[in-house]
Amino acid sequence: MTLSELHRSGRLAASYPLVRGMLADLTDRELTRAGHILARLDPDEVLDAHPSTPELRVAVTGHRTLGPLIPPLTAELARHGLLMRPHLSDFDAHVFDLGDPESALYAAEPGLVLWVLDPDMVFDEVPVPWTAADVERVLDAKVAMVRDLAAAFDRRADATLVLNTLPLPRRFTAQLTDHRSRARLGAAWRAAGARLLTLGDEIPSVITLDLDPLLAEGIPAEDARLGRYARTGLSPALLARYAREVGHLARHLTGRTKKALVCDLDGTLWGGVLGDDGPEGIELGEGLRGEAFTAFQKVIKQLGSHGVLLAVASKNDLEPVEKTMRDHPGMALHPDDFVRVTANWRPKPDNLTALAQALNIGVDSFVFVDDSAYECGLVRHALPEVTVVQLNEEPARHIERLLHDGWFDTRELNAEDHARPSRYREELDRQTFLASFDSIADYLCELGVWVRLAPVIEPEIPRAAQLTLRTNQFNTTVQRYRAPQVRAAADGPGTRVFGIHSGDRFGDNGMVGVIFTRAEGDTVHVDNFVLSCRVFSRGIETACLSAVLADAKAGGARAVEAVYRPGPKNAGVRDFYPDHGFTLADEENGVLTFRHSLADIAARPAHIRFIESLEERR
Fold this sequence. Notes:
Helix content: 40-55%
Strand content: 15-25%
Structural class: alpha/beta
CATH topology of the largest domain: Rossmann fold
Radius of gyration: 26 Å
Strand order of the largest sheet: 16-17-15-14-13-12-11-18
Distance between the termini: 60 Å
Low-confidence stretches: none
């Protein structure tokens, strides 16, 4: 059944979980058409039918008409399984919206605010006739205004503010008949763009989208007729691509960033079939097609350097695959770049499931890349949670196809991101080590787990925020925190943020968890407990909770209360608090509040060693 048929039959809200799959492979234009249908949905109807659907409140404001942005934006969020609740500001209301804390924009309590900037906000204030110097003066004033309003927004709201660079249409530059004036205007315009792009370094809540790469793909900046008669600032095509970029960001802000890229080999990382053609016969490194495959490998290697876990799932024999990866001069990727190379003749969905279990992450963290329509269809059918990128026979298009959807986009990288692949390789070593023991207890004793629980300090704040954004399974309230919110909790009166660091005989895992607490009277509240899936089932969560309870008791508290809020993937921690001596104190709309009297605090697991500083790790 199509989207239109579901809408006409009145079953679209009830069928909302199916929408994601319906939108998966649509073009920008098709997505916009679908968005017109989805924008008519009442979000409350969807939530009544599917209460666990992730919802994001999005406010849109700017200088020109922005109604045409809502349909593609609605569709892009739906494509990632999200439900958008939009707030659209009035025409040219952006200064009032962001400057007045009593405005309707603030009242909407959005998690994401899109301040769509366009070139007319500058040229509408340039006198006629004008020179490049006139534009430069207005441009400087506008950038200063943007900076001041963004800083005010950052102080007032717990939301992400998205800005964008300004296109410079030829209809303006062509009005300067001498090339030196055009060059001066272009230089001033690009300098203003650079200031907008770096605002995020100064104002934590700001992210600036660079529109130049989108324009370089041939997308028109504006539509002359719509700009004149409908008073739009950016073309429908550019708004659609803008919406796609925002969709990537929304996916990250709601904890849906992908973690692992799993690649086929034959026809994907090299041309030809290794089993038939041999290492000397595959297309790789030499010739135009061979160079294209090597270029594709370099892009994958680059993604791996940003913390993306790389793996192989190929129908091949393992020995020739490993030899080719190790010895072929055209290979940009080598065995050490991958957390696992799987080459066998089992169905690929089985191999993906086994890999997810070995890495202790969900299959919905995977992006699977293959040139075979059969294999892609099989994975889509067996594992619909996996994102499938189907390549074609033209290797020059592989890079474009892989990067089109920004599956691994994140706000910023930190040291933990760069170390992530090596951490997961160590985890696979732990799995091998486990197989040599008769019992889990013996394994844990020999593993030598150490834990450090300490208040989060300033350099650790980005990592603490990232853990709340990326962790879905052991996240007791599925609440997402930005760095400013973590900082406020760490520095606030009565609030504390504890970072959990761990490691063992195989290496240092880094910061793997975070606990948010708040003291009110004689009660300490655990507002959230987050732990990376990499360190499940080692007793770390028990040890840290016991430490928090003991700390609360030592500080004079008479009880500790903790909340469990259900999310799409955290059902496994529903009984975490009851299993550790808490009793149910309240239940409202599925949210459970548990209470611990502190009379009997469970001992920390004997196999875990607590340390005071990271220097004590060994």
